[in-house]
Amino acid sequence: MKRQIKDDFVIECVKGDITGQPDIDVIVNAANKLLAPGGGVAGAIHKKAGPLLYQECKKYAPIETGQAVITKGYNLPNPFVIHTVGPVYSEEKSPAEKLAMCFKNSLKLADEKGLKSIAFPAISTGIFGYPVEEAAEVSIKAVIGMIPGLKSVKKIRFVLFDENTFNVFHKKLREIYEGKGNT
Ligand code: AR6
Question: Please, which residues have CB within 8 angstroms of residue 42's CB and are 6 or more apart in sequence?
Fold first, then answer.
């Protein structure tokens, strides 16, 4: 599903694997504070990128929840990876604020670097336990709020791994845009 926000900007949801998006400049990793290879998205990204990714990550670790750092993509089809740490839902006092920060800080980094396209997974909705409905609302609103200020980024893609998460994000994106009068 694709939404043309303005003439030259696209926001879309696809079902798939974040490590299989060769047309995207930077993919976002749902990382842990140590930026170490874990399970889920982080495991898949580090596996495909190869060990040099963790070597570079170590230079920037640890980072705080909501922060983001950028590295090269190594063996991934993307030149860059942004690593951001989502909130652990049951432990965070203001999880929505922290989750929104992940998206905002990642977009800011990509834009500053002059990148044109970015792909996000459903940060925090796996091991970190954020309910998918709530996460979709916070995540989509956070990226949409950033669009007017972006200079370089022209495409934002949400890559959702399973059918349910895809359906929830897809529906939420449609609702938010229908609310704004788009079709
Ligand atoms: N591509 C796209 N989405 C994926 C992929 C993939 N290859 N694999 C899983 N997902 P998670 P979190 C989905 O657990 O909740 C790691 O160990 C998954 O189904 O990867 O932020 C880190 O090191 C879910 O919908 O991230 C941290 O310790 C979503 O991506 C911790 O897990 C996020 O799931 C981060 O937990």
Answer: 29, 30, 31, 32, 36
The residue range of the domain holding 25 is: 2-179
The ligand 1 atom nearest the CA atom of 129? 15
Q: Around Cβ 9, how many Cβ atoms within 10 Å?
A: 15
> What is the Å distance from ligand 1's center to 135 Cα?
13
Q: Is the pTM of this model over 0.85?
A: yes
**Atom of ligand 1 at shortest distance to CA of 86?**
21
Question: Quick check: CB of 124 below 6 Å from ligand 1?
Answer: yes
How many independent structural domains does the chain possess?
1
Q: Residue 52's domain is classified under what CATH number?
A: 3.40.220.10
Best residue among 24, 29, 41 to mutate for probing ligand 1's pocket (most ligand atoms within 8 Å of CB) is 41
pLDDT digits (tens, 9 = 90+) for 60-95: 999 999 999 999 999 999 999 999 999 999 999 999
Residue length of the chain:
183
Residue 113 CB contacts under 8 Å (≥ 6 apart), including other chains? 26, 70, 80, 152
